[in-house]
Backbone:
């Protein structure tokens, strides 16, 4: 039998469905792989072996009864630790939630369970999803399987690394400014951010409510599309969830896999080419991919998005503002860490000590930034102005999509960087999301798909589509994948 | 131990012009909370009516309650407000342990209803109170401080929080400042809250119980000398009854006048009204105003009530209490003055229900403004809390009209009803208070009285009918008042051949 951990989700599901292998065998193979390599990678914060095996056995029992199985039944999946899992520890990468076991499942997790997928455990992340390297996880960073001395991207570095290291065929991430796509790019995997409101945020521990979007991570575009269909769709528990059918992403991925993009217009954002831009190796791989897409029949059109240059500053006002309010609830009163409650200190002191001890430096930085941006007298100049920029960026997207079907860019300006190289200067870290943030401000979907290597490290190709036209980007992504192939990292053994 | 001499009220309002404003919070009587499916009914063990949403657990999200939005729009319409065609919820950020998320979902610069008014009558004069806004928000939990002497957080050894109330829909109704009230300011404030309460009750959106906190009132008061700009205002909280609204304004006017007369200045602050002392005490100072960092709630979509739906709600509004009262006044045939005394006694609804239960308006009014008002006054309670229901009063009157009780007996029966002994009929029977109508027994009592008072009987036989009163008295005495005096009299005259 070939190594079960190297299979795609599609193949695993088919083998289980055909009875070639049991779901339990698949799950045990992945648990073994985690035991073998996660000491080096540190993709997981919590492995729920018992829960995973029980879920796998349930799938096997259903198959034995002759029940019809869904397209991903029995396929293992890793879940970013920012989504609540009933009775399974959920920390959001923070000390302040250490030991917290939520009394409820997030909607995404509930849908994964309903689909018969097997949840292996919870993956590492930058604390409260704030970061681009997992260096801000309170539990230590995740190491990139391509080079263990480099970052796996962030905030969802754990989910991307778990897939790249064959610890799981699928994973769930959340994308606020690029936290699915940038880790996907630097680990050579596929990371997709659906349309905001296309996937439910219920049970997603909020960083920035108007931007946070759960989405799939996988090693192939089709696998990502299958996971997308399972997790997406309207949820009445999330008021911002869109009451419309899920775009036909699986069908679109299959269509793209035929390698025909005749008549598809790809938009190249002029402004992305100016200013700080992407490093040469990234640009080279990106341009090679563009050439490959042209060969498949796609047409390249240059479009202008004049307000994209303000996306980064607008994002760093909106996201911290919302986070300063969202994170106010972590005060030691009801759950999680409590520090200094010695019977003498006042409530205010205990709250203060708890937050001081429980939050890391990046989280504190953003809470302060957001508190300032929302304060009376500054609101209009900062938060209010940022919202106007957001409207203008949305206009840029709408105008661009009148001319082209999708927009394309490198996912992130640089390949995986060494640990510690950007933590001393927050701005250098923030630049990692330069190309991904506009999509979040607009609310549309974006996907990162591997397009080659630069100095032996993966480069990601980003495709952005109009809201609720997620299928378009899957088609182009699958076509690109058919042209350039998938990437295989060096072996972690030995 | 304050040494400042307070001026009397008349002197205060002679020297200064008060400006008042009222902020009223109403807990809506919806079945479920504002943003989750938890039940809202009162009581229940602490922290049993909670879920991830109203506990603000990480990841939980709010979903707005449509019934609460509908109720708020109906309140806005009843207060002659414009209803927003598009508005948003906002987060009000501040740290307090009874607020699970450390922010309250409220409305800020985009309230659901704006710019209305409410007319109230005071002393025969109609005063129009401007309504600034009506908005919707969520209630907080309740904190209980244990171990301290004051029940306040300072000195407490332990603080317990109950989140059962957290997330109950709360409507805030804010008036525009009311200038020109003069000496009537306290009465206008009371009349406003009374009228508002009646409107809310008529709409059926809340049980509007001030004592239980489902209707809460904050009173803003400032004073200025005639011709000068409005003064610094204070906000008085903990005003838990209609009577307290009036007293709070009155005492704050006297206090501020004393400060200003002695050359001091008024500090913008929150003050607490004390039911016991009838005055206000300083609370949290607002000199350093809290910055709530309001911003639009990103977890909720904007509210855009369909104008057609709003019009349907408008068309279905119940009659306004003022209009309703006018109609009742005509039906009951009361003068303006009589009607005002009914209103002031808080008896409109009670009389209306008593009439609905079968009594005449005159009889209902007689009981509620007479015996029952006297009892309520003695006990220092609202008339509606006196212990007799309109149905019981109607039943009592039926017994009187049927000759089973006379007025004196009826009052005794009413006492039994108030004491909780049961319905009027039950009390009458249990206490054996019915009028003696068995003519056999009555004839015997009459004969006995005639035999015992031969002189009086002779006078009556001689045509001195007025003398029969003494015999009637004797019969009433032997029957312990349980006879109908008129019947007794007729019987006596018949036995003595005098009619
Ligand atoms: Zn609840």
Residues:
């Amino acid at each position: 039998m070939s190594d079960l951990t190297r299979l795609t989700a599609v193949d695993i599901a088919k083998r289980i469905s055909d009875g070639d292998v049991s779901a339990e065998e698949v799950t045990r193979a992945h648990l073994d792989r985690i035991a073998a390599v996660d000491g080096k990678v540190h993709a997981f914060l919590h492995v729920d072996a018992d829960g995973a095996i029980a879920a796998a056995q349930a799938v096997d029992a259903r198959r034995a009864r002759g029940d019809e199985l869904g397209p991903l039944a029995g396929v293992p999946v890793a879940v970013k630790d920012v989504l609540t899992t009933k009775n399974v520890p959920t920390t959001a990468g923070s000390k302040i939630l250490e030991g917290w076991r939520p009394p409820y499942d997030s909607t995404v997790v509930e849908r994964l369970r309903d689909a018969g997928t097997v949840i292996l455990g919870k993956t590492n992340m930058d604390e409260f999803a704030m970061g681009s390297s997992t260096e801000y996880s309170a539990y230590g960073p995740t190491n990139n399987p391509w080079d263990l001395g480099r970052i796996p991207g962030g905030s969802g570095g754990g989910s991307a690394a778990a897939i790249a290291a064959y610890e799981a065929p699928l994973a769930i991430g959340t994308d606020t400014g690029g936290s699915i796509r940038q880790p996907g790019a630097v680990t050579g995997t596929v990371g997709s951010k659906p349309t905001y409101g296309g996937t439910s945020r219920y049970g997603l521990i909020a960083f920035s409510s108007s931007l946070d979007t759960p989405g799939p991570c996988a090693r192939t575009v089709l696998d990502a599309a299958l996971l997308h269909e399972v997790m997406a769709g309207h949820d009445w528990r999330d008021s911002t969830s869109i009451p419309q059918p899920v775009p036909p992403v699986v069908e679109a991925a299959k269509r793209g896999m035929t390698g025909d993009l005749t008549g598809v217009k790809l938009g190249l954002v002029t402004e992305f080419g100016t200013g700080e831009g992407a490093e040469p190796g990234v640009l080279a791989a990106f341009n090679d991919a563009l050439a490959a897409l042209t060969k498949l029949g796609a047409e390249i059109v240059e479009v202008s998005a004049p307000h994209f240059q303000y996306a980064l500053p607008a994002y760093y006002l909106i996201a911290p503002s919302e986070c300063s309010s969202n994170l106010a609830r972590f005060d030691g009163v009801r759950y999680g860490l409590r520090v200094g409650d010695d019977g003498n200190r006042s409530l205010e002191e205990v709250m203060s000590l708890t937050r001081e001890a429980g939050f890391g430096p990046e989280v504190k930085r953003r809470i302060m930034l957001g508190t300032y941006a929302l304060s009376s007298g500054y609101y209009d100049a900062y938060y209010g102005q940022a919202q106007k920029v957001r409207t203008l960026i949305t206009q840029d997207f709408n105008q661009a999509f009148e001319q082209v079907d999708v927009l394309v860019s490198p996912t992130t300006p640089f390949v995986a960087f060494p640990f510690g190289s950007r933590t001393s200067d927050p701005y250098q870290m923030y630049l990692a999301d330069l190309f991904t943030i506009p999509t979040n401000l607009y609310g549309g979907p974006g996907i990162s798909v591997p397009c080659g290597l630069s100095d032996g490290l993966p480069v990601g190709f980003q495709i952005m589509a109009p809201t609720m036209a997620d299928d378009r980007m899957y088609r182009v992504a699958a076509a690109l994948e058919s042209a350039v192939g998938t990437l295989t990292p060096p072996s972690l053994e030995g | 131990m304050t040494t400042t001499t307070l001026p009397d009220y008349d002197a205060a309002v002679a020297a200064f012009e008060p400006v008042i404003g009222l902020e009223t919070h109403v807990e809506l009587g919806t079945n479920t909370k504002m943003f989750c499916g938890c039940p809202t009914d009162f009581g229940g063990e602490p922290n049993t009516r909670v879920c991830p949403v109203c506990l603000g657990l990480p990841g939980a999200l709010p979903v707005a309650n449509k019934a609460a939005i509908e109720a708020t729009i109906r309140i806005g319409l009843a207060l002659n407000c414009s209803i927003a065609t598009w508005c948003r919820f906002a987060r009000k950020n501040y740290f307090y342990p009874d607020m699970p998320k450390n922010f309250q979902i409220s409305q800020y610069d985009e309230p659901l209803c704006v710019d209305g008014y409410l007319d109230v009558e005071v002393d025969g004069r109609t005063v129009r109170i401007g309504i600034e806004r009506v908005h919707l928000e969520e209630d907080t939990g309740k904190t209980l401080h244990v171990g301290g002497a004051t029940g306040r957080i300072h000195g407490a050894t332990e603080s317990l929080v109950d989140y059962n109330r957290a997330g109950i829909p709360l409507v805030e109704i804010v008036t525009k400042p009311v200038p020109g009230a003069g000496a009537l300011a306290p009465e206008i404030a009371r009349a406003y809250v009374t009228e508002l309460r009646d409107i809310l009750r008529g709409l059926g959106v809340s049980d509007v119980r001030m004592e239980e906190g489902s209707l809460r009132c904050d009173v803003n008061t400032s004073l200025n000398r005639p011709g000068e700009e409005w003064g610094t205002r204070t906000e008085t909280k903990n005003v838990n009854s209609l009577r307290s609204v009036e007293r709070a304004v009155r005492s704050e006017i006297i206090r501020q006048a004393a400060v200003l007369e002695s050359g001091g200045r008024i500090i913008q602050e929150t003050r607490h009204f004390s039911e016991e002392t009838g005055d206000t005490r300083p609370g949290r100072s607002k000199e350093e105003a809290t910055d709530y960092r309001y911003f639009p709630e990103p977890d909720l979509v904007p509210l855009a009530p369909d104008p057609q739906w709003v019009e349907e709600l408008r068309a279905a509004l119940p009659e306004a209490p003022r209009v309703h009262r006018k109609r009742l006044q005509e039906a009951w045939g009361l003068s303006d003055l009589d009607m005002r005394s009914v209103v002031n006694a808080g008896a409109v609804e009670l009389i209306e229900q008593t009439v609905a239960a079968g009594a005449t308006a005159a009889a209902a009014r007689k009981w509620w403004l007479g015996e029952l008002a006297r009892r309520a006054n003695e006990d220092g309670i609202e008339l509606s809390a006196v212990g007799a229901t309109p149905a019981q009063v109607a039943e009592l009157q039926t017994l009187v009209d049927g000759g089973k009780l006379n007025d004196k007996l009826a009052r005794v029966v009413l006492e039994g009803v108030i004491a909780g002994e049961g319905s009027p009929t039950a009390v009458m029977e249990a206490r054996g208070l019915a009028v003696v109508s068995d003519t056999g027994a009555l004839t015997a009592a009459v004969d006995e009285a005639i035999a015992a008072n031969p002189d009086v009987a002779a006078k009556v036989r001689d045509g001195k009918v007025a003398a029969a009163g003494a015999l009637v008295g004797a019969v009433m005495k032997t029957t312990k008042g349980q006879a109908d005096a008129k019947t007794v009299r007729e019987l006596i005259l018949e036995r003595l051949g005098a009619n």
